[in-house]
């Protein structure tokens, strides 16, 4: 085979490698919906560049409201706990962040955790359940300040 | 999590199109290798190419049938890498040697095993039941090469092989998967305890020993056995996996700080205590000194010369002399590819790895269960770390250690393990991209494994 053919094949192969890569990247680009919100019909980045009024106003940053956890009912009534950025474990076990002296609470009863600007509460498979405003928790739900959360005989609230 | 959801499209046709392109790369490479020789387009070429194509298309068919929503780009990427490796190994075979066909055999076995994983496992969450069984399995796999009778003895300074009939096998390759399953299962159940319980010393919070015990045990087993097996690369891999999975589970940067400090400290101690580690480090820092070149760094330096010879566009497949480098088809296959495909080609290969790893992490982001997230992160990171250690070693960024280049290097065990990893990642991406599956897992057969979600203290005390 002539040198010319071999050189052509050599560069052709390198080209083929990069064609594969660019095809994969373009397949991923569609997969990730870059610059386009698939379902909501929001304008694409390119459309926004052409008509600036199409751009949505950026959402107002919400300040993290709850700053402390207060026990309003139960054996530990009056206890407060400052809330930082880390999750809080509630229960009777000694390793809990707030150790509840409550016979109706489980060892690892529930978990309060921050996500975005809000705090969420999640039941950790407790025996007697966790109630957010008298609704038993079946999944993690956001806790607004002032809404009572009942664990056994203890009721806690988040305060600003 | 829901912000990350993609449109529910299987996109299997995209995969098919990309797969055809990937096969063109793999088969094209095999064609280029022999194009100027007498044996171009001989029966061997057609046989190998058609087997690879049939296996890849069969894999695609299984995905259509069993994991419809699996990631569409992972399989093409892996097939392209595997095909490039096959071509390079075939090209480096001296007359009479059969490494190329052996690698093809292992590729087919590995793909069959990965298909079996997808076919029979169906849901990665089932693996969570085997958390502690995987720990035991990892320990067993790591100890096997030290057991007389099964052990294949010391090959090239490391005792990591076992004898299986006429073949040798490296059980440590599979152990990285079982360890990842254990870390994922243990950390997903005990994440809160590790995060919340424990005392704070200075800025760092240390978990209670009780919660970390099994993790430390797993780490000690892997590191301990690897010191006895004298396999530096695998111990770096296991340790990296350990640190990353704890970091991903707890999102505490302190783990990474502690881990890096331990690696540096451990590396320093190992370089003083173990002669083979000292030799590796000396061969890295003083690689160009003539005495060091004669006993140690020859391999790396020849690889560097080869890559320099390749330059920007490479000498062309089949045109260079990568065979001058010792272990050109396994440890140094990146240098061989670098010589014949040049910088442009090697960047393409590195990008393929990068894309594969990002797809793995994408699956981790999309999947809804903590176990799947951790497992996908761990497995993708294992692939990434392996690439970093090997390519970094070959290009003299870090000392050369004996890890295999995923999918490229000659070696059956590594190929098998990496295809299983791809199978698991595809399964996880299937649940990540597919519609939400609300059906409960099929009940497990043994009763004691139901206690995965740790019961509360009250239940235990009752």
Automatic annotation (TrEMBL), chain A:
Domain of life: Bacteria
Disordered: annotated segments: 41-61
SUPFAM superfamilies linked to this entry: SMAD/FHA domain
Pfam families with a match to the protein in the record: FHA
UniProt keyword annotation of Phosphoprotein present: yes
Keywords recorded for this protein, A-Z: Membrane, Phosphoprotein, Transmembrane, Transmembrane helix
InterPro entries, A to Z: Cell_Proc_Reg/RNA_Proc, FHA_dom, SMAD_FHA_dom_sf
PROSITE patterns in the cross-refs: FHA_DOMAIN
Keyword Membrane set for record: yes
Membrane spanning residue stretches: 6-27
Domain named FHA: residues: 88-137
PANTHER family: NUCLEAR INHIBITOR OF PROTEIN PHOSPHATASE-1
Name of the protein this chain belongs to: FHA domain-containing protein
């Amino acid at each position: 085979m002539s040198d010319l053919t071999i050189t052509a094949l050599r560069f052709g192969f390198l080209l083929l490698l990069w064609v594969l890569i660019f095809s994969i990247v373009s397949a991923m680009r569609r997969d990730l919906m870059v610059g386009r919100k698939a379902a909501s019909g929001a304008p694409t980045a390119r459309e926004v560049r052409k008509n600036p009024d199409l751009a949505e106003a950026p959402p107002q940053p919400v300040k993290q409201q709850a700053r402390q956890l207060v026990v309003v009912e139960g054996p530990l009534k009056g206890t407060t706990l400052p809330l930082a950025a880390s999750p809080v474990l509630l229960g009777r076990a000694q390793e809990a962040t707030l150790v509840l002296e409550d016979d109706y609470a489980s060892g690892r009863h529930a978990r309060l955790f921050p996500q975005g600007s809000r705090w969420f509460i999640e039941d950790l498979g407790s025996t007697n359940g966790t109630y957010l405003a008298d609704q038993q928790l079946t999944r993690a739900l956001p806790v607004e300040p002032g809404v009572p959360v009942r664990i056994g005989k203890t009721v806690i609230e988040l305060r600003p | 999590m829901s912000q990350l959801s993609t449109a529910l499209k299987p996109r299997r046709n995209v995969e098919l199109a990309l797969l055809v392109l990937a096969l063109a790369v793999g088969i094209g490479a095999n064609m280029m290798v022999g194009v100027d020789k007498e044996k171009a387009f001989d029966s061997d070429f057609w046989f190998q190419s058609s087997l690879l194509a049939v296996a890849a298309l069969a894999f695609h068919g299984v995905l259509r049938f069993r994991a419809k929503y699996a990631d569409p780009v992972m399989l093409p990427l892996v097939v392209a890498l595997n095909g490039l490796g096959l071509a390079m190994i075939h090209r480096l075979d001296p007359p009479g040697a059969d490494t190329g066909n052996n690698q093809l055999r292992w590729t087919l076995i590995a793909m069959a095993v990965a298909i079996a994983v997808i076919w029979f496992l169906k849901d990665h969450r089932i693996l969570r039941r085997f958390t502690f069984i995987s720990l035991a399995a990892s320990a067993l796999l790591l100890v096997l090469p030290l057991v007389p009778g099964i052990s294949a003895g010391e090959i090239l300074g490391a005792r990591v092989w076992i004898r299986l009939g006429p073949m040798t096998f490296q059980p440590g390759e599979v152990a990285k998967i079982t360890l990842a399953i254990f870390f994922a299962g243990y950390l997903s159940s005990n994440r809160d305890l590790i995060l919340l319980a424990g005392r704070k010393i200075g800025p760092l919070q240390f978990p209670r020993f009780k919660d970390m015990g099994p993790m430390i045990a797993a780490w000690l087993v892997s590191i301990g056995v690897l010191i006895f097996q004298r396999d530096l690369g695998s111990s770096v891999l296991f340790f990296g996996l350990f640190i990353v999975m704890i970091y991903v589970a707890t999102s505490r940067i302190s783990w990474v700080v502690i881990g890096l400090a331990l690696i540096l400290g451990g590396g320093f101690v190992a370089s003083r205590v173990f002669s083979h580690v000292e030799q590796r480090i000396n061969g890295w820092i003083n690689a160009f000194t003539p005495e060091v070149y004669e006993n140690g760094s020859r391999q790396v330096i020849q690889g560097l010369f080869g890559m320099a010879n390749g330059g920007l566009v490479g000498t062309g497949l089949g045109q260079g002399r990568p065979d001058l480098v010792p272990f050109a088809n396994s440890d140094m296959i990146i240098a061989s590819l670098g010589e014949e495909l040049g910088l442009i080609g090697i960047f393409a290969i590195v990008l393929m790895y990068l894309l594969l790893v990002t797809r793995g992490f994408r699956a981790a982001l999309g999947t809804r269960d903590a176990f799947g997230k951790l497992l996908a992160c761990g497995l993708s990171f294992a692939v990434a770390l392996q690439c970093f250690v090997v390519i970094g070693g070959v290009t003299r960024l870090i000392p050369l250690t004996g890890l295999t280049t995923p999918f490229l290097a000659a070696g059956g065990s590594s190929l098998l393990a990496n295809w299983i990893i791809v199978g698991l990642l595809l399964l996880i991406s299937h649940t990540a991209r597919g519609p939400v599956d609300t059906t409960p897992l099929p009940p497990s057969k043994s009763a004691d494994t139901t206690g995965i979600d740790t019961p509360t203290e009250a239940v235990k005390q009752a």
